[in-house]
């Protein structure tokens, strides 16, 4: 059966960075990987980023999570892939879940009767932002239920950005404390500390291609993002760098995540803007290499959060209030 590797992790944990590393390693090992991207929102940002790494995209689930709104599309994509002769299929499929996808429900969708003869869940990797592990805790010290499931269900947890989180004289103690926190939630999975999502992938590929390592089917759970909103703001005109930075600085706690491609006044290149608002907000604006693309992705920003101010976001990023 076709092995499926799930990559999960909360918003901004570094899933796409890890996938670049994974795909580069797969190419070096002559492993043919098919990638299904689960983009929360109707704009496909991660897909364009991964094409830069030479990935073979076999499905893009835009407009919802693989655990709910796009689950049928995910199942259909795998069913169509399963109809191909085995020699025409990839060696494995990597499904990158949206940061808001409930892995428990996604696992249940991957084990529907129609898929059982065709595909198997071979492994699940969870990315955790080491710099935000403490910030994501609630007042009572507990983590958000969705993050707990992302960690607890994984057979490998990658504590990413460890080079930034564990520095100084107390770094060893802080690493041990973080590992104990993860071990409280996941007693059996491997735990790795990573910089830029890079780890040794020998054991990952061993699990993926071990037929006996498939995860058992869990019971379906309730998705944890019923009230999450997503908003796409088209940016048809270039924006000045000053105004873009002001708009990013202005984003408040109701914006959990934002990312997209923008054109900056006076620049010929396309730029990738990213924002993480959970805990201590931070943002980046970087030039994006487009020479590998057949066509340029649209210039637009995708916003995710519990209570988005549509008018303010359109005004700050598009320079106009929406009429609809």
Tell me how many strands there are: 12
**Rg, Cα atoms, Å:** 20 Å
Helix content, binned percent? 25-40%
Number of helices: 10
Give the topology string: H per helix, E per strand. EHEHEHEHEHEHHEHEHEEEEH
Shape: globular
Note the main sheet: 7 strands, parallel
Mean pLDDT: 80
Through-space gap between termini:
47 Å
- In spatial order, strands of the major sheet run 3-2-4-1-5-6-7
- Structural class by SSE content: alpha/beta
Low-pLDDT windows of residues = 213-227
Structure characterization notes:
- There is one protein chain.
- This protein is an alpha/beta fold and 324 residues long.
- Helices cover 29% and strands 23% of the residues.
- It has helices spanning 15-28, 46-51, 71-82, 103-110, 145-152, 162-165, 171-185, 202-208, 241-250, 310-318, and strands at residues 2-9, 33-37, 56-60, 92-96, 119-129, 156-160, 190-193, 229-234, 257-263, 270-276, 282-288, 300-305.
- Helix 5 links the parallel strand 5 and strand 6.
- The longest helix is centred in the middle third of the chain and has 15 residues, at 171-185.
- The model is unreliable at 213-227 (pLDDT under 50).
